[in-house]
Design goal:
This protein has one domain. It is built from ten helices and no strands.
């Protein structure tokens, strides 16, 4: 519901209230047209005609599912037969894991290995979804706020779980006091409110940053395709989109890593300080 309201307001501001311009059709557009008038489709908002949000939401779910399935198949292919000297997909995945592991450890220390599976999955999933935007007949799910909001909320919940599991519930809750003693009751209560607002702002920040960049990029590509006709004037932008697809996935993962570091590593160090 929150994602729907945000997506409607943000897209309305960007589109300037244009209700008639339909987004370019994709491979899943015929399927959407076939199910949008079904009774069950209304429960998911797939029939929403407001700036074609119903179509965008449905296609975002389809393409994100496609990206997830492709990622699972690639992982199975890379791990089907391990070799002492890795080659092909195994070599590519091991290189990616090694680089990500070094990156995460730079922020969190040796304990960062516990978060590499989650952060690596987030990076690869977002990167693959971003790349779908440059494939003809496809659309990047991350250009829809409902998808990026889901990623932001998932990261938010995961970080809270990591913090409670690794730092302990007492240390986790003490984070919301900002280190202020309960004896200073007015400031103590104010810090709790400020910290809670700050925590709730993090998933929104992650969502809007990724959505804004991919939405703008994909819309430029779609407009160039419309204006160019049979002339591929969008090719330079497509080449640049490959780089930005990686960059936006990296930025999201880096911010998630910093978020984990600020919550978990800070609390772990705080818990160890009295012992030293």
């Amino acid at each position: 519901m929150i994602a729907a309201l945000l997506s409607s307001s943000v897209r309305g501001a960007i589109a300037g209230g244009d209700e008639t311009h339909a987004p370019p059709a994709t491979f899943f557009t015929p399927l959407w047209r076939a199910i949008k008038d079904q009774g069950w489709a209304k429960w998911f908002g797939f029939d929403n005609p407001d700036r074609h949000l119903g179509q965008l939401w449905f296609e975002a779910i389809c393409f994100s599912t496609l990206a997830g399935a492709a990622l699972i198949l690639l992982a199975l292919a890379a791990t089907r037969r391990y070799e002492r000297v890795p080659r092909g997909l195994q070599n590519l995945f091991e290189l990616a894991v090694s680089l990500l592991r070094s990156f995460v450890r730079g922020f969190t220390g040796p304990s960062g290995d516990r978060y590499v599976p989650f952060l690596g999955t987030v990076f690869l999933f977002i990167f693959l979804m971003n790349l779908l935007g440059i494939v003809p007949g496809f659309r990047a799910p991350t250009m829809t706020l409902s998808t990026t909001a889901a990623l932001g909320l998932t990261t938010f919940v995961a970080v809270q779980i990591f913090a409670i599991r690794d730092a302990g519930p007492v240390s986790y809750l003490s984070h919301f006091t900002g280190g202020v003693s309960w004896k200073l009751l007015p400031i103590f209560l104010l810090m709790i409110v400020v910290e809670i607002i700050g925590e709730l702002a993090k998933p929104m920040s992650l969502s809007l940053r990724l959505f804004g960049n991919i939405f703008g990029e994909d819309n430029v590509i779609e407009q160039l395709m419309t204006l160019g006709g049979w002339i591929p004037v969008q090719l330079p932008m497509l080449a640049f989109a490959i780089f930005t697809s990686f960059l936006q996935a990296f930025i999201f993962t880096a911010l998630a890593t910093i978020y984990i570091s600020s919550k978990v590593v800070h609390e772990e160090h705080g818990a160890e300080a009295p012992a030293h």
